[in-house]
Amino acid sequence: MSESATNAATVKTMPLVRAINAGLRQAMIDNDKVLLMGEDIGDLGGVFRATEGLKAEFGPERVLDTPLAESGIVGTAIGLAMAGYRPVCEIQFDGFVYPAFDQITSQLAKLTNRYEGTMSFPVVIRIPYGGHIGAVEHHQESPEAYFAHTSGLRVVSPSTANDAYWMMQEAIASNDPVIFFEPKSKYWHKGEVDLAASSIDLHASRVIRSGSDVTLVGHGAMVHVLLEAAALAQSEGISCEVIDVRSLSPIDYDPIVNSARRTGRVVVAQEAPSHVSVGSEIAATITERAFYNLEAPVLRVSGFNVPFPPAKLEGLYLPDADRILEAVDRAMAY
Amino acid sequence: MNPQLDNDIPVVQFLNEAGEYAPSPAAERFAATIEALSLEELQQFYRSMVEIREIDNQATRLQRQGQLALWPPSLGQEAAQVGSIHAARKQDHVFPSYREHAIVRERGVDIMNVIRQMRGLTHGGWDPASGDGGITNIYTLVLGSQTLHATGYAMGVKFDGKTGTGNPERDEAVMVYYGDGSSSQGDVHEAMVFAASYQAPVVFFMQNNHWAISVPVSTQSPVPIIGRAPGYGIEGIRADGNDVLASYAVAKYALDQARSGAGPKAVEAITYRMGAHTTSDDPTKYRTSEEEQSWAQRDPIQRMRNYLQSRGVSEEFFTQVETDAAEIADEIRIRTTELGELAAEAMFTSVYSEPHPLVAAEKQWLADYEASLEGSE
């Protein structure tokens, strides 16, 4: 089924969380084995309203309000996948994923390999993540690295409404387990969604702003901070190229490395703490592949290596445009 | 204190320790199920138990000879496994833990697949659909994990309308095996929560073999573990797991109840791990030979032999079973020594269902690296 209309009618402006809702809905229309499960996702429509209206439309056997147990959610989703379903789990907040960590890493990530190709496990785990919502502990974390580090999982994070709409459907269509990180601070950020077609692969990285002096690399909510920093840098005469990584496992390095070779200077930014992070992996790989073209070491701007602080300090903890520009200036100084 | 002697939760038993047919009060309501068994079926129970014990003993010897890295023996648990799996229908989906060698074999999966796993050639070993007795999941080594998978599968069966239609020849149920040690794991608790919430057609079959490596069951619980089931809203039944008839009757009841739409069920089969936890374990460090001897008096195979003899089964039958079992075990030995090596490429196969650039790149790297070493000799 698809929209049949003029181009104008197939592009709609909507908040990122509504694009997620629309993507889930379309996936459920396209395949009746797609099933949603999580805490409060049914009658409430999810604490962020991401699943609003879906239980009313598809019924309680396709939109499950589960008992309050994350390991149970992922473990039963695995069993449902074995029974031929395509479960989409919601973990209510990033900091709540850890009880499910064993089912995700010891089971879901390894099952395709353990079954030696006789079965696939098309489970999607949706996780609202990141800071900037002024929340209490465990509600503003960036645990991407644990999952990107685990082979057998695919890990992605949209930064725009359009990417949210299409990447959600592509993640559900994938026969591999996908951890889908949703930048919650951008849930109500509006963007144009082309309902007709996706123009890009689930795992592709994308240059979203062209520039010549410094390459800025990031994912999720940080992409918007990078764009803000690039605009400020422009007013100071520095031309920044901005790349949205989009997929953290696998990472599409070619556009990133090509950009690094052209600009010679790279700043990687993330909300997550730096020590053993996705940003560190990107920095190391760029250095290996673009070494002779680099004018400066690849720099990282990250959250501090401390537990995410009480919300009154989140503005200081999370990298903002000024911290990005500080790194840009350092890169330019080499 | 031995919670397993607690009589507040009655035990279903048909054959007493001497092998005499003497149904316990709790067994009476299942008597018709046992009376419906033919003598041939009873003889097959015995044969199956003897054969898997011989295979199991052979596997332990193979490990001692360096042919296997490890072997977790099912020794002593033959009745709990053979009896219960005989109750499963072909349309049922079975989830073992990692000691259910009789389950695997009775479902028609080649036991050499388990040998291959213990030799270090695979983490899985078979396609669950490959057993002609019905879908049988591969082993799960993380304790209790499979109870969630089984519950989710049962939820799917229910959502598909493949259970509770009133047709026991087609209605599906799920049976998941785990041990007394695993019953302490949070995943088992969560599985029962989900099973009860969704009234999933799953039977939780716990083999209480009294030991979790070196930790006695009394550390897992000061009261019978099956007592937890009603707390979830799940009917629990306790069986003498060393009585193959009790194991069969209770599993059949539980599965047929589950497939009829009566919701999840739980079974505790009281048995004993006669061997070590695995070939890497030394039970002399934590339990007494007196205890082992007392359980040897309750041996499931001897018990069934005594019963069959009382039913007039000839000595020729028992001799034939022993001969056949020895032959089967020897075939296992020969096939084990003939197992090939694992190719390096296997590491990169099926990491994902769809192509993945990093896996492909590293597979190529290793191939080039290995080739470069050969060239430099």
Question: What features would you highlight for this structure?
Answer:
heterodimer; A: 334 residues; alpha/beta; seven-stranded mixed sheet; five-stranded mixed sheet; disordered N terminus; B: 377 residues; 14 helices; 8 strands; 9% strand; globular
Task: Describe what this molecule looks like in 3D.
The complex is a heterodimer of chains A (334) and B (377). In chain A, strands 3-2-4-5-7-6-12 form a 7-stranded mixed sheet, with helices on both faces. In chain A, strands 9-11-10-13-14 form a 5-stranded mixed sheet, with helices on both faces. Chain A has 12 helices and 14 strands. Chain A is an alpha/beta fold and 334 residues long. In chain A, α2 (16-30) packs parallel to α7 (161-173), α4 packs parallel to α5 (101-114) and α8 (222-235) crosses α12 (321-333). Chain B is α/β, with parallel strands linked by helices and 377 residues long. Chain B has helices at 31-35, 39-64, 78-87, 101-106, 112-119, 145-159, 186-198, 217-220, 229-232, 244-262, 289-296, 300-310, 315-337, 357-375, and strands at 11-12, 93-95, 174-179, 202-208, 211-212, 215-216, 235-240, 265-270. In chain B, β5 (211-212) and β6 form a beta hairpin. Classes of the chains: A alpha/beta (334), B alpha/beta (377). The interface between A and B is large, with 43 and 40 residues.
